[in-house]
Amino acid sequence: MAAHIPDPYLMYARLREKGPIHRKVSRYGHDTWLVTGYEATRSVLLDPRLSRNPHHAPQWMRDQELTGGGVLGINLLASDPPDHTRIRRLVSQAFTRRRVEALRPRIQAIADDLLEDMARYPEVDLLESFAAPLSLTVICELLGVPAKDSADFRRWTRETMIPPIDEESKAVLRRGTLAMKDYLTRLIDEWRGRTSPRLAPDEQPTLTGALIAAMDEGDQLSDQELQGTLALLLMAGHETTVNLVGNAMAALFRHSDQWRLLRETPDLLPGALEELLRFASPVEMAMPRYATEDLTLAGADIPAGGVVLACIASANRDAAQVEAGDSLDITRPDAQAMLSFGHGPHFCLGAALARLEARMALESLLRRFPGLKLACPPESLAWRHSAVRGLEKVPVVLG
Ligand code: HEM
């Protein structure tokens, strides 16, 4: 995981020159396969012989608590068909495009309030003052987590995303996991009470309420699966979106010509957002996949139990797929997020929400503070040690 390295892209470009897949010895002394080419990454994400279920992970990964299984329990991103198909169908039914679209006015109101608050200070951290509270409020309201508890969620989410590299980080990760599980158990109990008897016809159930109602009707989701799904939605739905806004703004500040162009032509924003997703994706590496049988991938022989790491950040810049992929160009005629939301059965369920939120965040920011500037040299921005690629801070002068 290279999420804290300021510029891993040169290393990825060199690897792609050598080939699409590379055998690497992990820090624990075991072989893993790093996939850097676009086509190979796409096929890894589609291959049913590569499992996402931690039960198929090799023992050394489980011993080192590297499978993430403990954090979320049973959830979409840690399961294979047929369990994955069943849970995904249920969550997709509750997490509809209509439900996402209905959030538009609320997202705008939250963004406007935050920007108004920010205007009182000459300099702020864009992540803590804007991107984080925006994304956190939206996901908590969507799931029915009371506002008073959202700060706890931010802390637990961050704790559960710490790479478990030593005993101290493992302890923090376990603490966050336990606290989040405990809280979600209580939230589910509370919602159970509220969804029965049924809501009034004009009352919108939260996503959690809709999931519980569907679950009680057909007995299709166990309590453990519901808890894992909620934890996944909170974690996947928060930290990624915060860092999309942060990474996108940092990339624009680093490419002042592109930043100027966007300020002068705000209509470029939809295409610019796709390009920024491709160029500065918060998900650098897909979750590990485990070979369930001996197989050959892009010419490499991988034994059963082998760990395959699909590098989205590298695939998104592959010259075979995108011209001058290491350049940021917000005017690309066919700009695409490429593999930033994954591909295949585990394709991001929150992609529409993430796009809506990020677009509204950037639009509102540009409109309210057209003179926005980075308050430090771009080289001094530091990347966080986290499973999601993001910056420690993005200090800005509002202008
Ligand atoms: C899966 C990226 C926002 C919910 C994924 C995957 C990626 C991704 C790459 C696939 C991982 C893999 O196959 O290993 C992103 C990015 C986001 C974002 C870049 C923001 C910029 C969200 C939001 C939500 C969400 C806002 C929900 C509120 C999920 C879920 C899955 C997922 C539930 C698992 C789907 C499955 O396994 O079937 N996301 N995500 N994501 N994402 Fe997102």
TrEMBL record:
Keywords: Heme, Iron, Metal-binding, Monooxygenase, Oxidoreductase. It comes from the Bacteria. InterPro entries: Cyt_P450, Cyt_P450_B, Cyt_P450_CS, Cyt_P450_sf. It holds the Pfam family p450. Gene3D superfamilies: Cytochrome P450. PANTHER family: CYTOCHROME P450 YJIB-RELATED, P450, PUTATIVE (EUROFUNG)-RELATED. Belongs to the cytochrome P450 family. This is Cytochrome P450. The lineage of its organism: Bacteria, Bacillati, Actinomycetota, Actinomycetes, Kitasatosporales.
